[in-house]
Amino acid sequence: MQFCVNFIFFYAIIQPINLQLLINVKNQGGDVMQENIIANVSEDTVILDFLRLDGVYVSQLVDFTNEVEAMKVVIPAEEELGQSGHQTLCFLTHAAQADFIAPDAMAKLRQKNPGTVRVAEEDKGWRQTTATAWAGRATRLLSPAAAKHCAAARERVYLRAADLTRWAPRPGMEQSSYSSEVTPFPTNALSPDATDGKPAIGPCVAENDAAKECICHLEVCVNWYPCGLKYCKGKPQGGLSYRCGIKTCHRCYRYHYYVRRRDACLSYT
Fold first, then answer.
1. Dihedrals phi, psi of 161, to nearest 5 degrees
2. Source organism's superkingdom (predicted)?
3. Please, how many CA atoms are within 13 Å of residue 157, restricted to the half-sphere of its CB?
4. I want to staple 61 with a disulfide (CB 3.0 to 4.6 A). Which of 66, 96, 149, 269 is the partner?
């Protein structure tokens, strides 16, 4: 039987192990790039990372135990714009587990033809996230794996305060422990209208003063990832359906977040 996208699952004869796959993926522009996928069964995490053609490095971690998704983005400076060095950002969101294959299932994945260039079967569209706070020490409380993943971002780890109510407290912790460790953005950064006598903060793309605060936006597309399992029916004489392949998806993310200075927004154009 031809399994979907030439991957094979071994469910009965192989125990879960950690897995690393290097996948050739065609993006929406027709360019081929490589994605690296690591499934860690012992930590219950999956990491997918790749280097975009514009030099931006993207690394997406999903911590299934703690239901945390951490999108890390490393943006190189553009010297022609007067920038220097690079910038690391990390965005924490509540993980919708239905969008991902769990590590134990991922670890049973085997690639039949490593050289094949793959295209996602389903387009999941855009997911927009408007961050409302700096995560601070809450990152470590929410997910040790995400804290390690985002360590290089330092104070540039962002989340939505609304997501804090969706994460169940870890053993021995109160729900309020999360909220007490985050730092909310200024009130006028969270409203399209003037707040507390201060004008609303506009988008960085419309701000000409490099020293002025503004709302930065960043777009990231994951062109191919295993987003579900496929099932085949048993023989006509009877029999249960069985897992026989994977469904693959494409999804784009648009992040909005506050910066104290426009020159801290390397992706404002």
1. -60, -30
2. Eukaryota
3. 24
4. 149
CB count within 10 Å of CB 105 equals 20
Distances (CA, A) of 264 to 79, 88, 260, 268: 14, 11, 7, 9
**Which position has the token pair 């490095």?**
57
Nearest of 214, 218, 216, 184 to residue 201 by alpha carbon: 214
Which element (helix H / strand E) includes 104? helix 103-106
- Count how many residues are written for the chain: 269
Round to whole Å and give the CA distance between 59 and 74: 9
Mean pLDDT computed over 229-251: 77
Structure tokens at 47: 């990491």
- pLDDT tens-digit map of 126-162: 999 999 999 999 999 999 999 999 999 999 999 998 8
Instruction: Provide the CB-side half-sphere exposure for 107 (13 A, CA).
Output: 16
Structure token pair of residue 102:
């769990």
Kindly report, residue by residue over 40-85, the tens digit of the pLDDT.
999 999 999 999 999 999 999 999 999 999 999 999 977 665 666 7
Q: Which two tokens stand for residue 78?
A: 């553009």
What's the CA gap between 20 and 26, in Å, rounded?
A: 19
Nearest to 151 by CA among 70, 57, 50, 64: 70
Compute the Cα dihedral for 221, 261, 155, 96 and give only its sign: negative
CA 103 to chain centre: 15
Q: How far is CA 69 from the centre of its chain?
A: 6
